[in-house]
Specification:
The complex is a heteropentamer.
Chain A (H helix, E strand, L loop, with lengths): L4 H15 L6 H29 L4 E11 L2 E9 L1 H24 L6 H20 L3 H19 L6 H32 L4 H11 L5 H17 L8 H4 L5 H10 L4 H8 L1 H6 L1 H24 L3 H21 L3 H28 L17 H15 L6 H15 L5 H26 L13 H16 L14 H6 L13 H28 L1 H8 L2 H11 L4 H19 L4 H23 L4 H24 L1
Antiparallel strand pairs in A: 1-2
Helix pairs in contact in A: 1-2, 1-4, 2-3, 2-4, 3-4, 3-10, 3-15, 3-19, 4-5, 5-6, 5-10, 6-8, 8-11, 8-13, 10-15, 13-14, 13-18, 13-23, 14-15, 14-17, 14-18, 15-16, 15-17, 15-19, 16-18, 16-19, 17-18, 17-21, 18-21, 21-22
Chain C lengths: L1 H22 L1 H24 L10 E8 L4 E7 L1 H24 L4 H20 L3 H10 L1 H11 L4 H34 L6 H4 L6 H18 L8 H8 L2 H26 L1 H28 L3 H20 L4 H32 L15 H14 L6 H16 L1 H26 L14 H19 L2 H15 L1
Antiparallel strand pairs in C: 1-2
Helix pairs in contact in C: 1-2, 1-4, 2-3, 2-4, 3-4, 3-11, 3-14, 3-19, 4-5, 4-6, 4-11, 5-7, 6-7, 7-9, 7-10, 9-11, 9-12, 10-11, 10-13, 11-12, 11-13, 11-14, 12-13, 12-17, 13-14, 13-16, 13-17, 14-15, 14-16, 14-18, 14-19, 15-17, 15-18, 16-17, 16-18
Chain D lengths: L3 H19 L3 H21 L3 H26 L3 H10 L2 H23 L13 H9 L3 H22 L3 H11 L2
The chains are: A mainly alpha, B mainly alpha, C mainly alpha, D mainly alpha, E mainly alpha.
Protein name (chain A): NADH-quinone oxidoreductase subunit L
Main location (chain A): membrane
Keywords (chain A): Membrane, Transmembrane, Transmembrane helix
């Protein structure tokens, strides 16, 4: 089995769909679109099994040379190791489920083939990203997923808003990519290669811990990661990216692409370990992001934007984990998050479709009875997101992070407090959303009930969101470490400082309580005393605060004022190219000289004679001047 | 006062030359201009003869004769041209002969 | 000999297509197309089976021309020349194809000019005699002038004049430098020659070398074009007919880059190294400034033209980075920019044929009617913003990777240029193909002929993106000499 | 040699020339010019060129000036043109050119005075020597002078011939 | 006069005899065709007379003339140019003037003047040659009496030429007074002996420069040029632009060499200022000019500036460049005027730019020739003008005249603008219903002449070696 097949199958299918966009029937498109991902998933599973059985460090396939110039050499090398297997597995499986869902969701879309072409292209690029053995190939996938994200956010191209959102997403992530590119240059400069294993291996010889160079490299890599993963300060694009079709949001902006940053940092963890400053920065970014995004999620009115902010917030948890050195915890949260967030998005999508493309939370409500199946899967998703203790996957993964943010070597009380605050917020916004959608009065008529192709993936994901947590249980609750063991060959185990069971208990209890109290607050706010709460929320100060949070802490405004407006203003000002003025004024000067001289050609004989005399005077004057003066 | 004869002659020629030049510059009547040129040519001829006397060679005087010939030819063609111009413009004003410019 | 044949084929085809064009338009077109394809075939043949083991120079041809001055008809081909020629003939053939329907008046003369430009460009890429180089350098201007001035858009004369004056001014400075070099060489060795190989390693004092180098450099910077000599380019590109824009962007600009690689660096290595920071700075300014201007434009072709300024900044940056990776990137960039920008111009031209405007404010939502063209545009827009998998990425990445070794700060700024590139590139797609379609257009998508052109370009750009190795290997030999 | 004769002749020449350039009436000017030429002839004589002095009187004052006078009379330029001339010769017109010319004169004088050749007596070159030179080494120049005169004659002949139409208009307008 | 003198002066004597003979014929029987043929034959014979003279070079005819390679080469050049101008003249005058025969006499005489200038080594010959040329030109310029402007042009030329001659004479007198010589080598020797350049001699040179500068049409003595070009008959304008200027230049070079002008930086300075001023003035004046004749006039002012750069380079290459440039300039200028001649109708000269609008699409051949000529003036490859400019720049570089070269480059660019503007007009697509006023005559002889000129132009542009060798040989002897 060739690992190369895994990304190749989606690529080929994307190509097929692109070329055959006019001729292929809807069914053919569905078969190619979903089937290829399914096939890819199947191959992935086979290879994973082979890998697990083989006991090797990694399966590496060299699928051809790419660029070789002056000592720089890269190829299409694909790598399957423990980390890639996890990501590949999640991408293909969740991807397949989302594809199946999308075949139902996008049923009436005229550009059906284009949609699947882009989706498959995305999966291919994402798989390349996580399987790349060298950073250039990773960059290839990295940019490829960016492209697909762009294409899919702007899928409904007729609405300019969608295009703006798409463009914003691309440009903002590109800022991060630029940082990452510079990191690549630096890595090449010092290690002479871009192969990841070689870099990781040699890095410890080249740099001592805390070397400014490696700190820079790590920070720049982090820059790439925050761009792609929508972390502070480049988080602003993700909420807008919700303009795309819901399966896209589920696949790209929840489950897979946005976690590429997590993957990148996990993949290059050795570098981060060498650069403690960068690692702390990662944790700080994660902590701040998760809190800020939590507040923003709390006040959104658009169902998808709530989820988007929640995604930002959850990835903040992962970054926090990475920053604390809890590599496998981050990856674990990625897995569970992929499941429940995909589930939530798709369920939300189903709700939206059911309500005739209504996304405003306040126009929903009372859907519990109307959409029974969705209600239940939504509940599972929400529970997992809010980390309801014991039964949800989200609990185990997030709890691990909360605990490690305090106890790990890179942990800190402040991180821990932020994480706990995040837990409270998560509970609040998740269930605010849930209650708003399913409780209260029916506000919009339900016109369409999702079919099987949409529901079955939801059920599967709901199941996964529940059981996936049991592969990794904390000390206090059974102590299963299947997942971290699996990753051990790639990612070192976290070094825990305060290995105290009592404290861990306290932490867990606290987070559980906070999550539940968050739910309680949400219940009070939405179901129990909506009137009183809303009166309270209508207070002017709070009103402003709500707006502020709702606008994502006005980061957009900040960037607009700092970067976008000056750039646009400068470029508009200079549309005619100031430098050109230099040349046109030169031409004008020539014209002026012409005009002046042309005056002397008056046609008057006396004038011409005067010219001769002037010439004579001038010649003699020059003579006298040169000789005597 | 010991005046250098050559210098003195040259100065005289120079003065006459410049007087002719002034005339040609300030006059608008074409015949006057022609006249002034003759003055200048004559001054140049004088300069040649003065130089000739300085060196005691005949070259300068031969040149003077040629200048005379040239002046004659000049005047004859010039007058013919002026006649034509007069027929055309009804005036001898040189400023009228400024149809071409720019 | 085969090198002379390449030039002569074009020359005679030019004359023939003019003569035939009087009677038959199609005949003229076919002659032009066939001659270019023939040349492309020859070059490809050379590429595939060039004599192995002959070292850097695959073919040489030398005949005395004006022995009085030491001028000879000296042609030689190495990997760099070969690549440039392949690009020339490829884009040349496409230019004929895209003019098939667009040019309907004075067809014979059009092809005469087109082939004559290409003939001049071929000469520039082949000649190893500085006089001859200048000769060809100037020779290609006049037909280009006609291409812009006769078949261009509204302000064609202004644009043509501007183009002509700028390049001539640069060219004359180069002439001064060439002659200066000639005499410096003669003073040192007592051999009067314009031969490139003889003039290499001319010993000269640094001040002199600097001035001479500047003479060459300015000519090439104007052609490249680098800020602040770029202002002819937007006008010329905008007003030229599609084929003219393709040849301008795809080929003429490359002669400047080629000149830097072939002449400035090898002839004056020390002086070039001295000025490298400034040149790189100009490159970076070009990248950012060009990108900024591109973002503001509303004329489709003008926008693309400014992207050329931006992209050629990378060439300048890389050329003066003095390491092999950057040089490889530069060579790649020359080719890929030719392809991608040429393709964008072709798309702009095809759009103009359909909706008769270049103002992107009046476009929008064209994807609905022209999905194929939109997809093609998407590919080349992505190429232009440097998406991996397409040729430009390899080029830009190598350039930046190389220039990083030379200058960190400038490289960082140049990398920021990638963000700017993203901004203006996506703006094209957004304004032209996306958004609401307020007008009822009724127009056909790409025709068969256009499809052939576009597919050829797509294949090449993807090939360069995924498998650039043949190109890199070919330019390798040459670069070894340059870098030393 | 530079004696009173020279000074007187030179003064007359200069004064007469000044009169030439300040006259309004062309006839007066021409006559003053004849005076000036005669004075120059004296100077020529003083500078040891008697033959040239004679030629000056005969050819210049005699032939060329007479031609001019005849021409002026033919065109019948009388009072009118004198009036016009008066109008044209305003200080505003002549002051700048005259200043310029005087600067030129100043420069010329200055430059000529820089000459530091040893003072030499005026050497007399008799007509015989001139004749010997003219028909000796310079014989070809004489032939060329013939060509010169031929050009003058042919030119004057062609240009002087009156066009019928123009003549007619001329007669009409001037009511001879 | 010895036999050798006769042979050496063959061309001059042939033409002089022809001049007298034609005059007699005109007196006897006026017939345009016959006179024309006779003149043609005279020119051909004069050209043939150059050949036997080659055997005896260098030959001096003391003290007036010298016949060496340089003067013979230029004699040939002038004769060929005159012959070509003659070829272009027949139709032009046939259509315009009832009395056309005197033209040929005057043309022969003017050519004699130019030839004398070329071979002269003495002030007297210089003066006589110049005046023969000038006085013939008075007649020639005002030749077309039916034309309003020709008188005006004639009188302007006459006045200014006489004035400049007066300056020239006064200058010569000064030089003569303070060196005691009128022959160039004598002056040179006297100056060498003195070991420095006496100020008054310097002043003499300065004043002579005015006379020479006027004929060359260089700043500030250039103002006549456009008016005279516009008013004169086109072949005469071509004559003035080429032969008259060329002969004076040749003279200037000889004079400069004989007096060892390079030893005196003062002279260099004066000429350099004039050269730069000429380049700028010529090009600026031509910039948006609408009259083709005036454009050619202005362009010739600028070209004189370029030529002076070669002159000033102070190296052997400079003189070679000058000679080559002169040849190229002759071909190009006559070609350009030739185009205007064949384009002109019997009623009107084709002198405004508007007459040339879309010419390429109406008369592609004429337009191509004109384009070639203009490009040659602009110095674009494949033309003689390119090699000429190249040669000039080469000389400048060789002489390290960087400042002058820089000026030349700037001016070339300015110049390009108006040449290319003309080309653009010819290639402009005419709007529907647009009619030009001039219906070109397009005589066959004229067309053939243009073909020959174009072939020469491109021939020299592509294969200049033969011409260069010739020039180099000739210049080696001069220096």
């Amino acid at each position: 089995m060739f690992p190369a097949l895994i990304p190749l199958i989606p690529f080929v299918s994307a190509l097929l769909l692109m070329l055959g966009w006019k001729r292929l029937s809807r069914i053919a498109v569905t078969v190619i679109g979903c089937g290829s991902i399914g096939l890819s998933a199947f191959v992935a599973v086979l290879i994973a099994i082979q890998f697990a059985a083989g006991g090797e460090q990694a399966i590496v396939q060299h699928a051809g040379n790419w660029v070789e110039a002056g000592g720089f050499k890269t190829g299409f090398d694909l790598r399957m190791d423990a980390l890639s297997v996890v990501f590949v597995g999640v991408i293909t499986i969740v991807g397949f489920l989302i594809h199946v869902y999308a075949s139902g969701y996008m049923h009436e879309e005229p550009d059906y083939a284009r949609f699947f072409a882009c989706m498959n292209l995305f999966v291919g690029a994402m798989l390349t990203l996580v399987m790349a053995d060298n950073l250039l190939l990773l960059y290839f996938g990295w940019e490829g997923v960016g492209l697909c994200s762009y294409l899919l956010i702007g899928f409904w191209y007729k609405d300019p808003a969608n295009n703006y959102a798409a463009r914003k997403a691309f440009i903002v992530t590109r800022v991060g990519d630029t940082a990452m590119a510079i990191a690549l240059f630096m890595l090449f400069q010092f290690t002479g290669t871009l192969r990841i294993p070689e870099i990781l291996q040699s890095s410890t010889h080249i740099w001592s811990k805390g070397d400014p160079v490696i700190t820079w490299i790590a920070l720049l890599l982090l820059g790439g990661a925050v761009g792609k993963s929508a972390q502070l300060p480049l988080q602003t694009w993700l909420p807008d990216a919700m303009a795309g079709p819901t399966p896209v949001s589920a696949l790209i902006h929840a489950a897979t692409m946005v976690t590429a940053g997590v993957y990148l940092i996990a993949r290059t963890h050795t570098l981060f370990e060498l650069a403690p400053d960068a690692q702390i920065t990662t944790a700080v970014i994660g902590a701040i992001t998760l809190v800020l995004a939590g507040f923003s999620a709390l006040v959104q009115t658009d169902i998808k934007r709530v989820l988007a902010y929640s995604t930002v917030s959850q990835i903040g948890y992962m970054f926090l984990a990475l920053g604390c050195g809890a590599w496998s915890a981050a990856v674990f949260h990625f897995v569970t998050h992929a499941f429940f967030k995909a589930l939530l998005f798709m369920a939300a999508g189903a709700v939206i479709v059911a309500l005739h493309h209504e996304q405003d939370l306040f126009k929903m409500g009372g859907l519990k009875k109307q959409l029974k199946g969705i209600y239940w899967v939504f509940l599972v998703g929400c529970a997992s997101l809010a980390a309801i203790p014991f039964v949800t996957a989200g609990f185990y993964s997030k709890d691990q992070i909360i605990w490690l943010s305090l106890s790990a070597a890179g942990g800190h009380t402040a991180f821990w407090l932020a994480a706990l605050l995040g837990a409270l917020l998560t509970g609040m916004y998740t269930f605010r959303l849930f209650f708003l959608v399913f409780y209260g009065d029916l506000k919009t008529h339900v016109h369409h009930r999702p079919g099987n192709s949409m529901m079955i993936p939801l059920y599967i994901l709901a199941l996964l969101s529940t059981i996936a947590g049991f592969i990794e249980l904390p000390h206090t609750l059974g102590h299963v470490t299947l997942f971290s063991n699996w990753l051990l060959p790639v990612l070192p185990a976290v070094s825990v400082l305060h290995d105290s069971v009592a404290m861990e208990w306290t932490s867990q209890a606290l987070s559980a309580v906070l999550a539940l109290s968050g739910i309680g607050v949400a219940y009070a706010w939405v179901v129990w005393r909506p009137k009183g709460m809303s009166d309270f929320l209508e207070m002017p100060a709070l009103l402003w605060l709500r707006g502020f949070w709702s606008r994502g802490w006005d980061f957009d405004k900040l960037y607009n004022i700092l970067l976008v407006y000056p750039f646009v203003y400068l470029s508009r000002m200079n549309k005619k190219d100031l430098i050109d003025k230099l040349y046109t004024s030169l031409a004008a000067l020539m014209q002026w000289c012409h005009n002046v001289l042309a005056r002397t050609q008056s046609g008057l004989l006396r004038w011409y004679i005067l010219g001769v005399v002037l010439g004579a005077v001038a010649i003699l004057s020059v003579l006298i001047w040169r000789i005597y003066i | 006062m010991n005046v250098h004869p050559t210098t003195a002659g040259m100065l005289l020629a120079g003065v006459l030359f410049v007087l002719g030049l002034i005339s040609i510059l300030v006059r608008r009547d074409i015949i006057f201009m022609l006249l002034s040129v003759e003055v200048m040519l004559n001054a140049a001829g004088l300069a040649f003869v003065v130089a000739s006397s300085h060196w005691g060679t005949a070259d300068g005087q031969v040149m003077f004769i040629f200048i005379l010939a040239m002046a004659a030819a000049e005047v004859s063609v010039g007058l013919a041209l002026i006649l034509q111009l007069y027929h055309q413009l009804k005036t001898l004003d040189s400023d009228e002969a400024a149809k071409m410019n720019g | 000999m085969i090198l002379l044949v390449l030039i002569l084929i074009l020359f005679f085809a030019a004359l023939l297509s003019w003569i035939v064009g009087v009677k038959s338009h199609a005949g003229s077109r076919w002659i032009a197309l066939c001659s270019l394809l023939l040349n492309l075939g020859i070059v490809t043949g050379v590429w595939v089976n060039h004599p192995a083991g002959t070292g850097r120079w695959w073919y040489q041809y030398r005949v005395d021309w004006v022995p009085h001055f030491g001028i000879s008809l000296h042609l030689a081909m190495d990997g760099l020349s070969m690549l440039m020629l392949a690009l020339t003939f490829f884009l040349g053939a496409l230019s004929v194809l895209i003019s098939w329907k667009e040019i309907n008046s004075r067809v014979g003369f059009f092809h005469f000019n087109l082939l004559f430009v290409l003939c001049g460009i071929t000469g520039v890429f082949l000649t190893m005699d500085l006089f001859l180089f200048y000769f060809f350098w100037e020779m290609m201007l006049i037909p280009m002038y006609f291409l812009i001035g006769i078949w261009g858009h509204e302000h064609r004369e202004y644009a043509a004049n501007k183009f002509f004056l700028f390049t001539q001014a640069g060219g004359l400075l180069m002439l001064l430098a060439i002659l200066g070099l000639y005499f410096v060489h003669a003073a040192n060795t007592n051999v009067y020659t314009f031969d490139y190989f003889d003039l290499l390693n001319t010993p000269m004092d640094p001040a002199m070398a600097r001035w001479l180098m500047l003479g060459f450099l300015v000519a090439f910077l104007v052609k490249l074009p680098a800020v602040p000599f770029h202002t002819w380019l937007p006008d010329a590109h905008t007003e030229a007919p599609t084929a003219g824009s393709v040849v301008l962007a795809g080929l003429l600009l490359k002669t400047g880059a080629y000149g830097i690689l072939r002449f400035v660096l090898p002839l004056f290595p020390a002086a070039a190294a001295d000025i490298a920071p400034v040149a790189m700075l100009l490159g970076v300014i070009g990248i950012l400034y060009g990108g900024m201007l591109a973002y503001a434009q509303t004329d489709f072709k003008r926008l693309i033209a400014y992207t050329s300024v931006s992209h050629m900044g990378f060439v300048l940056l890389g050329a003066f980075a003095f390491n092999e990776i950057a040089y490889q990137g530069v060579v790649m960039q020359m080719i890929t920019h030719g392809i991608s920008t040429g393709a964008l111009f072709i798309i702009a031209g095809a759009l103009y044929e359909r909706i008769h405007t270049r103002n992107i404010r009046q476009m929008g939502g064209l994807w609905l009617r022209l999905p194929m063209m939109g997809s093609a545009a998407m590919i080349f827009v992505m190429a232009s913003l440097g998406l991996p998998g397409l040729g430009n990425f390899v080029a830009e990445f190598l350039v930046l990777l190389g220039s990083w070794q030379a200058n960190h700060l400038l490289t960082v700024l140049a990398t920021i240029g990638l963000v700017v590139a993203t901004a203006y590139s996506l703006r094209i797609m957004q304004k032209v193909f996306f958004g609401p379609c307020d007008r009822q257009y009724n127009m056909p998508d790409l025709s068969g002929r256009e499809l052939v052109i576009i597919i050829a370009l797509v294949i090449v750009i993807c090939w360069l993106g995924f498998h650039p190795q043949p190109v890199l290997n070919t330019s390798q030999q040459n670069i070894d000499y340059v870098v030393r | 040699m530079i004696g009173p004769a020279f000074y007187i002749a030179a003064a007359i020449a200069v004064l007469a020339t000044i009169m030439v350039i300040t006259r309004y009436n062309i006839m007066h000017a021409l006559l003053y010019l004849v005076v000036s030429l005669l004075a120059v002839a004296v100077v020529l004589y003083l500078y040891g060129a008697p033959f040239m002095a004679a030629l000056e009187v005969i050819v210049y004052a005699g032939a060329i000036m007479v031609l001019l006078i005849f021409f002026v009379m033919m065109l019948n330029l009388g009072k009118e043109s004198a009036e016009q001339e008066k109008l044209w010769l305003k200080p505003r017109i002549w002051i700048f050119p005259s200043l310029l010319c005087i600067i030129l004169l100043g420069e010329l004088v200055f430059l000529v005075l820089q000459n530091h050749q040893p003072a030499a007596e005026v050497k007399i070159v008799d007509p015989r020597a001139v004749g010997m030179a003219l028909f000796g080494p310079y014989i070809l120049a004489v032939e060329l002078a013939g060509m010169l005169l031929m050009a003058g004659i042919v030119g004057a002949y062609h240009l002087g011939r009156q066009k019928e139409k123009t003549l007619h208009r001329f007669l009409e307008n001037n009511e001879l | 006069m010895s036999f050798v003198d006769f042979l050496s002066l063959g061309p001059l004597i042939t033409l002089s005899a022809a001049g007298v003979a034609t005059m007699l014929m005109v007196a006897a029987w006026r017939n345009h065709r016959i006179i024309y043929s006779c003149t043609l034959i005279a020119f051909i014979m004069a050209m043939m007379a150059v050949i036997p003279a080659i055997k005896y070079i260098p030959h001096t005819y003391p003290p007036l003339l010298v016949i060496d390679e340089f003067s013979l080469f230029n004699t040939g050049l002038i004769l060929v140019a005159g012959f070509i101008i003659l070829l272009l003249s027949f139709n032009y005058f046939e259509e315009r003037e009832e009395r056309k025969e005197e033209y040929y006499i005057l043309l022969i005489l003017a050519t004699i003047g130019a030839l004398v200038l070329v071979v002269s080594r003495h002030f007297m010959a210089l003066f006589l040659g110049l005046e023969i040329l000038s006085i013939s030109l008075y007649g020639l310029i005002a030749y077309l009496r039916a034309r309003e402007r020709s008188d005006e042009a004639g009188i302007k030329y006459l006045m200014l030429a006489a004035l400049s001659s007066a300056f020239l004479l006064f200058g010569m007198a000064l030089v003569y007074a303070f060196t005691g010589h009128m022959d160039f080598p004598g002056i040179g020797a006297a100056l060498r002996q003195a070991g420095y350049l006496p100020v008054s001699v310097m002043a003499g040179f300065g004043l002579m420069l005015i006379g020479v500068g006027f004929k060359l049409g260089i700043v500030p003595f250039h103002m006549w040029a456009p008016d005279i070009y516009e008013g004169a008959p086109l072949p005469v304008a071509a004559f003035i632009a080429t032969i008259s200027k060329g002969a004076i230049l040749v003279l200037l070079i000889r004079f400069y060499q004989d007096i060892h002008g390079n030893d005196y930086p003062m002279l260099w300075w004066m000429v350099a200022i004039i050269a730069v001023a000429s380049m700028f003035a010529g090009n600026w004046l031509a910039l948006t000019q609408q009259n083709i004749k005036r454009i050619l006039a202005y362009s010739s002012i600028a070209h004189m500036g370029y030529i002076l750069v070669a002159f000033l380079s102070g190296v052997q290459t400079g003189l070679e460049a000058l000679a080559f440039y002169l040849v190229a300039y002759f071909i190009t200028s006559i070609g350009a005027f030739g185009v205007v001649i064949v384009m002109s109708s019997s009623l009107q000269d084709a002198e405004t730019i508007a007459d040339y609008k879309g010419l390429f699409w109406r008369y592609p051949w004429v337009a191509t020739v004109f384009t070639a000529m203009l490009l040659s003036l602009a110095g674009i490859p494949l033309t003689a003008g390119f090699i000429g400019k190249f040669y000039v720049v080469m000389a400048g570089v060789n002489g390290h005249q960087w400042f002058l070269l820089f000026m030349l480059v700037i001016n070339s660019v300015i110049g390009l603008y108006y040449y290319i503007r003309l080309v653009a007009v010819m290639f402009a697509v005419p709007a529907n219903g647009e009619q030009t006023t001039v219906v070109p005559a397009l005589p066959i002889a004229g067309n053939i002449t243009l073909v020959i000129l174009t072939i020469l132009l491109i021939g020299l542009g592509v294969y200049p070696t033969a011409m260069m060798q010739l020039i180099q040989q000739m210049m080696r002897i001069l220096v």
